[in-house]
Structures are given as structure tokens and as C-alpha cells.
Automatic annotation (TrEMBL):
InterPro entries: Isoprenoid_synthase_dom_sf, Terpene_cyclase-like_1_C, Terpene_cyclase_plant_C1, Terpene_synth_N, Terpene_synth_N_sf, Terpene_synthase-like, Terpene_synthase_metal-bd, Terpenoid_cyclase/PrenylTrfase
UniProt GO molecular function: magnesium ion binding; terpene synthase activity
Full protein name: Terpenoid cyclases/protein prenyltransferase alpha-alpha toroid
Cofactor(s) needed for function: Mn(2+); Mg(2+)
Residue ranges annotated for the Terpene synthase N-terminal domain, each copy included: 75-256
Keyword Metal-binding carried by entry: yes
TM segment ranges: none
Domain of life: Eukaryota
GO biological process: diterpenoid biosynthetic process
Organism field: Arabidopsis thaliana x Arabidopsis arenosa
UniProt keyword Manganese, yes or no: yes
Amino acid sequence: MEAITKYGSYSNVRFLSRLCWRLNLSSSYHYPLLKSSLSFSRFQSPKKLCLVRATTNPTDDNSTTRSFTPHPPSLWGHHFLSASVNQTEMDDLWRQIEALKPIVNAMLLPCNGADAKKITCFIHTLVSLGVSYHFEEKIVEFLKDVFENIEDIIIDCKEDDLYTVSVIFRVFRLYGHYITPDIFNRFKGDDGNFKKCLNDDVRGMLSFYEASHFGTTTEDILEEAMSFTQKHLELFLVGEKAKHYPHITKLIQAALYIPQNFNLEILVAREYIDFYELETDHNEMLLKLAKLNFRFLQLQYIQDLKTLTTWWKELDLVSKIPVYFRERLAEPYFWATGIYYEPQYSAARIMLAKSIILVDIVDNTFDVYGTIDEVKSLVQAIERWDSDAVDVLPDYLKVVFRTTFDLFKELEEYVSSEARSFTMQYAYEQLRILMKGYLQEAEWSNRGHLPSHEEYIEVGVASTAGEVLLAMTFIPMGDAAGVGVYEWLRSRPKLTHALFVKSRLRDDIATYKEEMKRGDVCNGINCYTKQHKVSEEEACIEFEKKTNHMSKVMNEEFLKAAKFIPLHILRPVLNYGRLADVCYKYGDGYTFAGEKIKDYITSLYVDLITL
């Protein structure tokens, strides 16, 4: 098919299709659909038109008027540019944190079997309060040692102690130890159902509900537990007792909205600190550590955001190219915070936020603005990866290419030696695969072709931003992400595959209505409804089932990978899956930062916790 090169000549087909890809897919499969060389791009139909004069070819004096849908502005703008952080306060906070750490560390000393149960529950509190990273080595060592006697620890629990058994299950699974769900059989009666005496144990029921979300694909008892506990927790919320225990009620509401294992660690910490403070038996020293730690992190985040905003202002893309992309700063940094929240990853968070911003610009260059020949020339320039390659590009694409090129050069600064050049090589490879995926999707748009759901997934795998972002996530971590990590990524493990599929499905459910309104018919829901002759509602239900299955696969593959991949590598992978739940389970939280995402960002970067 002859490539269409003029804007006016393809405007009649721009309603036909667009395959969304954002951050979402990977696979253990090859990419046969990418073998042919393509020269097409994707376009959207606008609801609100923004008219721009642009030249389709830098050597062509004929200009065309391009219409595109401007994205809604960010709620935050350049808010953090004027933010100020008192370094003296940060130093003082850190001194207080360091003074409290030895006291907590002493509480984690290996003891006899009876104390192992108590210490495991204490670790759960540390994790929930967001301070466990201070004691990571001690926690890992303790759990590894006592896991050999895990059966004795469970036996030591009282027969009806649902709370403690559930907490033990959660902690060991969280740290990569397979603990059988058969330990919950003790809470079933002779009829095979969970005992009625559990109904009034609200704390135990909540902990059991949280434990059920660590289930794998073959653990039916945890499926039963999820239904059982959800039912009774919802009944509690509408009953009289909820009024008498407001802080527990709030924690239950939060868990039913997004359980801890699917939530971002830093958001869990903010919620749990408030809960823990209202517990009558809370440890004052531990509460103080949690608050000091959280406030220190908040000040660090504000500094990071100021650095990110300064970079963006100096980059000044809004004056160099049409603003067809989403101008976001707080939102991509929120994503980066979700991937690694600890203070030692400050530079990595900033770098990842920049990477997310760049990916969005490239995405919208294909989706919204570029002509077919233009984006083809961009892909060719990326293939050559030469700063001189920009000569053949239109002016606005020169800016896009140089921004991409410069960001990768900045990433190279984190590569300490030639021996670690494999990290950048992997990132370059994933960037090129991303571009080829875009071109394949463009052919569908040009032909008005609605692919099968299987085709859709396969090409989505190839055009994933997830592979690129994972590479960009690990590079700033330096030697902590060694050659073995990249060999693991190259093998396309089932864990990352499940992650990207889950993210893709979450995005499809959240965005398909807006896409259909714009005329973008080539989306996952539409492909599925046409192929399987089902309604949109039925397709969404099926996608939700697939999403839940992928979450179980991730749980399962995490336990397998934890035997040979460090936890500090696996956690960012899991956190990308958590981002999918936080940002897309209840709508498109990146494009349209609704009340919940707004509240999250405010609670982390605006409203400082009171000490």
C-alpha cells in the first residue's frame, strides 16, 4: 500500500484506529508481526480542536493545518518550582531517625520460636508504617532463619488466632518465601466452610482479606477467603459497630478500595500511620520513627520535584514544539515514587520521571501530531542513533529526537564503567522495538483494520513502554542491578510478561470509552467485543477476570524469581503492577487526575505530616 504523506489525505482515516500501549506489555514470545518494514502512524479524532501550522516535510514549503485534541492541563503546573525545603530541618530529622534505629533494630534480634511469632508481627508493622527499609538486611536474615521452622511457628498460634496467622502468611510471602495456604484450613469447620465464630473477629477478617491477595493461580482456598472476608467486611461497614471503631473502619474502607499488596508502599504508609496512632497499644517510639521518616521523605520528594520542574522549564519544549503531549510533572514523579520511595533513590526517581515524560511525548508524537513520513523518519533516526541524523527531520521532530538522545546520554552518566555498557545497550534495544511497534500499529490505522484480540496483544507486546521504562528504572540503581538482572530481563520472564499484560488490561478498561468517543476504535475492548460477539460490559468483566489472573501469576512468579533475583530488583517490577491498580483501576488517573490521585499527590508532596 502506498504511504500517505499529506495530512489532508489521511484525515479521513484518522478515526479508524489507535492501539494504546502506555507502559503496558511484554511477553515471552517473539514479534513476527514486526518483521515487515512499515511506514504508517496513528492518529486521533479530536473533540476540541487546537489548530497549528506545520510543515510535513522540512524541505517542503507547503504547510498544512493540523488539528489535535489538547490534553487537559495538569492540576499542579509548576507549583513546586517555588517550593523551598529547609535543609537544616532535613538534617535534624535524619539525626533523630538514626538515633531511633538501634532501638528498633534490637527488637529484631533472633529469639526462640515463641518470640519469632511476635517479631514477624512487628515486621508487618514496620512494613505498613513505611520504615522497614531501614532494617532490610536484619529482616531478610531473620525471616530466612525462622522460615525453616515455620510450621512450628504456626502451630504455636492459638487455634482461633486468624489475625496472627494471616499476618505471618503475608510477611513471609511479601519477602519471597512460599508458605502454604493450607495453614488456613484450621479455620474451616467440618462442613468445609469457614467457621462462623470468625464473623465477629474484625481485625482477623481484615488481615485474612489482605492475605488472600497474595494468592497464586492454584490456591482456591485464598479465593474462598477473599469472597468470605469481603462479604463480612462490607457488612461490618454498614453495621452499628463501624461507628464505634472509626479508625478500623477507615482502614477497612482503604483495603476494600485497594488492598495493601496492590497498593503503593508509600500510600500504605501514609494511611497506616494515622491508623496506628489511634491504636491504644501503639509503641510511641515506633510511631515517632514513622512520622519522622515520612516527613523526611516528603521534604526529599519536594526537593526532587523542584529539580524536575527546573529541568522541564529549562528544556522549554512548550515553546519549541506544539503542545500535543500531556504536560505533566507531579504525575510522572508520583509514578516514580511508586516504583522506589526510599530516600537513597532520589536521583533515580528524578531520572525515571524524566523518562516517563519523554515516553509520553514520543507516544503523542505518533498518536496525535506526526504525519506518516515524519514519524517514519523519526524511527529511522532512532535506528541510526546519530546526532547528525536529525538533519532530515522536520524542526519539531529534531527537538523530539535531540531530547530523546540527550536523555539517554544523561542515563549513560549512571553507567560507571565500560563493563556496564550492557545496561545502555539493553535500553537502546527496547527503544527501537518500541518504535517498530508503533509502525505496525500505524498500518492498522491506515487500513482501518480491526485486529483480533490476539494480534492486538502481540503488537502491544512489541510496542510496550514497559520494557524501556524497566531499563530506565534499573540503570540509575548502578551496581545494584548487575548483569544477571539484564540477562533475566532479556529472557522475557513470566513475571514481567504478566505485569505488562495486567497493565495493558487495566488501561484498556479505564480508557476505552474516551477512545471510542474520539473515534479510536482499535482498542482492546473493541477488538474483543467484535471478535467474540459480546457487549462492552461483558468484555470489561472478562478483562477484569484476566487482570485478576495476571495478579495471581505475578504473585506466583515473584515467589519463583525470589530464589535467584534480589528483592530490591523484584520490588520495582511488582510496584509497576501496583501503579496499574492505583492509577487505572478506577479510571485514567494519569490523563485525568481525579479526586483520588489528587488526594494522593497532596498527601505526599503538599500536606506535610504533623510530628
